[in-house]
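Lab notebook, bench 4. The sequencing result for the construct came back, and we need a structural model before the next group meeting so we can plan mutations. Quick request posted to the team channel:

Model the 3D structure of this chain.
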Amino acid sequence: MKLTLNIEPGLIDKIKEVAKKRKTSVSKIAESSFKKEVESEKEPFRMKEESEISEFVRGMVAVTTPVPDFDHKAEYHKHLEEKYGR
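Done. Here's the predicted structure in token form:
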């Protein structure tokens, strides 16, 4: 599809030079720029609500509330001792 744009003459000459160096066309460069703009307008990342998470994924959760006195470092050290011995 064709599109007519009004661009200042100096910029047109510069973009033609860039296109020539990249061995592409001004149209391809413009299309790439437009695609980047469209992609940047997508909805930003957000955490899903629990109701939006599938049952399969919810089933993968081992513990719903953390144990308050759980010592992660000690458990990891214990794991390493079991795996590699002392």
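The mean pLDDT is 89.
Will bring this to the meeting.
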